[in-house]
Amino acid sequence: MTDVGVVVRPQSPPEQLRRAVELAESSGVRDVWLWEDCFLQGGLTSAAAALAWSTSLEVGIGLLPVPLRNPALAAMEIAGVARMFPGRLTVALGHGIQDWMAQAGARVDSPMTLLREHAAAVMDLLAGQRLTVHGRYVRLDGVALDWPPVVPPVVLIGARGPRTVSLAGEIADGVLLDSITDPEVVTRARGLVDQARADAGRPGRGLVYAYTELDPTVAPAGLAAQVDAWAARLVAAGADRVIVQPTGEHPDPAPLLAAVSPG
Q1: Residue 254: Cβ-neighbour burial (10 angstroms; 0-12, 13-18, 19+)
Q2: What is residue 220's predicted lDDT score, i.e. its pLDDT?
Q3: What is the pLDDT of residue 95?
Q4: Are 29 and 259 spatial neighbours (Cβ–Cβ below 8 Å)?
Q5: Pairwise CA distance, residues 12 & 34, whole Å
């Protein structure tokens, strides 16, 4: 069985999260992932609770929409959770759904500019830098975290289009791809991330994480085989991490947790 993560969708009520987290940890799954969809559940709130309810489980947030938070606040929150639960948090930042951003009064004229400025500021603040920034959207005056994480968590950029995928390679640790149904999308993203990282003069290899949705209503043995085969294809295409999620019609993560359990 290929090692994969599992999404706990926010379509289930918040009070059901603890059960899912405890089930994930007892099943031996390495990581669970949470969404911050409008207007369901807060990603950092849910992540902090999930980490507190477990002892070794890693938690990813995919993703935090940048229009909803000042980057200084985002960095403070991420740093606090990362220090309380070192080595167990991964965060993805992204544009957010633009219609939802408009509903919240946070939509901007250039989402790409905002994402670039916001993600760069968050990365620098988590790295312990003091920032003065006069950007189009991000304005900071001598801001530094008093409690930056000892080891900054992995910060990804959630992306679909090639410009955003390249931005992830340029300024973040890598990319989180959403709703992957074709391994070729992963292969293209791998090339874009690596090229952007090289062009920016950044050492090392960028990360490519892929969300993929699967129907959890199949028979358990069939579901386990389906997860394993599909995850193996995405890894062969260039994914560093495959994360499976149930459908919106059947959001209960229990069948997928059972299917990917190493036990």
Answers
A1: middle
A2: 84
A3: 97
A4: no
A5: 11
The count of structural domains within the chain is 1
- For the domain that residue 225 is a member of, what is the CATH number? 3.20.20.30
Count the residues in the chain: 263
116: its two tokens: 């670039």
DSSP structure class, residue 152:
P
Cβ–Cβ under 8 Å, residues 251 and 16:
no
Q: Is pTM beyond 0.85 here?
A: yes
User: Does the pLDDT of residue 164 top 80, yes or no?
Assistant: yes
Tokens linked to 123: 């990365």
Contact status, residue 98 vs residue 111, Cβ threshold 8 Å: yes
The model's confidence at residue 216, banded by pLDDT at 50, 70 and 90, is: confident
Q: Which residues of 132-164 are buried (b: 16+ CB within 10 A; e: fewer)?
A: eeeeebbebeebebeebbeebbbbbbbbbeeeb
Predicted local confidence at residue 1, as pLDDT: 61
Domain span holding position 48: 5-260
What CA–CA distance (Å, rounded) separates 80 from 100?
27
